[in-house]
Design a protein that fits this description.
This protein has 308 residues and is mostly helical. The protein has helices at residues 3-33, 47-56, 63-75, 90-125, 130-144, 147-161, 176-202, 205-212, 217-229, 231-246, 249-254, 260-269, 273-301. Helix 4 packs across helix 7 (176-202) and helix 7 (176-202) packs antiparallel against helix 10.
């Protein structure tokens, strides 16, 4: 690793830290500015009990002091206890939810990547044929349709009408529909990205030179065209894994999947301040880290790229 690459990584890490600090700060003060409090919905809570709960969780202190206390805890990866799920730490809730959300995201991304690269390659190699046009129509539809609409349609078709798959994500086989729902958009995007990139690569001079030298079509496609056309796809995969996990919030609600998305939505409706902050920071960190990894992988795949 040369000094320029090392300096680039250091700058990106510093930028990531600043980004996370900005997320924490904005989320904290916006959350506090919203009317209401975590104990407003508690049944039969007297004013004395309410003040006792606020004192227990430090909510009676000045706002800026609460902010500094939270920053200090976040630096030590301590997000505090949940205000609603009594007796449970926010970190434990996040880790429990990620066991399911991570499985959901990885499966969806693997299916999307393999299918997208395959369909994109076929579309590029059969450009302007029936195969190409059908693939482009299908992928355009999947890119245009929001995941909550697609999830609802799949739920109605396979769980209610055909009754072949469970609607509950916690049941056996319950992750099939959520995985399909989450994989359709990235699959369509990767298909279009692969097709566009491969068409560009196939028009390069070195491909024409390889053909003139008598290199077999198989070697041209797999050793040259496909390898180089995957660079944009690799760049897309890192952030997309984070986006699938963070974007599964609605999908997990539709299919009752016990993941981090469901916990996040519940924390908002219940005004669970510590859980809102913890999940926001965690998901933001996931996106920032995956973007950093993606940029580094971009350099590894194509050493000709200059990092600045």
């Amino acid at each position: 690793m040369n000094s320029k690459t090392l300096w680039y990584i250091i700058k990106r890490i510093i930028l990531a830290i600043v980004t996370l600090w900005a997320v924490i700060t904005i989320t904290f003060f916006v959350m506090k500015a919203v009317p209401g409090d975590p104990f407003a919905s508690e049944k039969a809570v007297t004013e004395a009990a309410k003040h006792a709960l606020e004192a227990k969780y430090g909510l009676d202190k000045p706002l800026f002091e609460q902010y500094l206390t939270y920053l200090n805890g976040a630096l030590h990866f301590d997000f505090g206890p949940s205000l609603k799920l009594r007796g449970r730490e926010v970190t434990d809730i996040i880790l429990d939810g990620m066991k399911t959300s991570a499985k959901l995201g990885v499966l969806a991304l693997v299916i999307a990547t393999v299918t997208g690269i395959l369909l994109g390659s076929v579309a590029a190699l059969r450009r302007n044929t029936v195969f190409d046009k059908v693939i482009m129509v299908i992928t355009t539809a999947f890119v245009s349709m929001p995941s909550f609409i697609m999830g609802t349609l799949l739920l109605i078709l396979f769980s209610i009408k055909l009754k072949v798959l469970p609607a509950n994500g916690a049941a056996e086989g319950g992750l099939i529909l959520p995985v399909i729902t989450l994989s359709l958009y990235p699959m369509a995007y990767i298909t279009r990205l692969t097709r566009s990139s491969m068409l560009d690569v196939l028009g390069q001079d070195y491909i024409r030179t390889a053909k003139a030298k008598g290199v077999s079509g198989r070697n041209i496609i797999f050793k040259h065209a496909l390898k180089n056309s995957l660079i944009p796809v690799i760049t897309y995969l890192g952030p997309e894994l984070a986006y699938i996990v963070t974007g599964s919030l609605v999908v997990e609600q539709i299919f009752a999947v016990p993941g981090i998305g469901r916990a996040f939505v519940s924390s908002i409706t219940g005004r669970d301040y510590t859980l809102i902050m913890g999940t926001t920071v965690f998901l933001s960190a996931l996106i920032v880290i995956m973007n950093l990894v993606s940029d580094i992988m971009y350099k590894v795949v194509d050493p000709r790229i200059t990092l600045e």
